[in-house]
Amino acid sequence: MTENTQYLTSLINNDSKGVMKIYTIVFPRVRKFVLQNKGQQQDAEDIFQKALIQITVRYQKERFKINSSFEAYLFTTCKNLWRKELKKLKNRVTNDNIVELVSEERDMALSILEQKRWELFTEKLDLISENCKKILTMFFNNTSYEDIVKKMGYNSETVARQRVFKCKAKLSEHIKDDERYNSLKTL
To answer: Structure pTM?
Structure first.
């Protein structure tokens, strides 16, 4: 049994020793991330708990495989949940319109769907060339085209824009060719 499977089994069986090990290893990183990104201790605890429940429910329904370490997977899930929470808070603060309340089950389903989309995206990102990975990583991190030109040694921003476009098209092609794409694109 792999370490990832041991962690998942601990969650499903409500094994307090295994769950405490997960808390000890991963929670400090999650707390630090949440605190550095406009959150409080309670927010970190809530997000961590929500992520554990999400992973447990999903694993009970479908025995998925984690390609990275369990710790990295759980941390990424927590980061995605916290970013989603921040986005909701931003909308509540800046939007005077009535915000639809989302049920806990629907919220969980959306989070699981979002996690599956992220997994598909990262899996397909590994299929493109190293050059494209570098370019898209910079692009997705909002690096300016001017900086991409400097870092990649291109002649102009036009060349950088063309490379970004071609790399995004290649990534999109890989994603759309996957059989999971149609089931993950709607909801």
So the answer is: 0.56
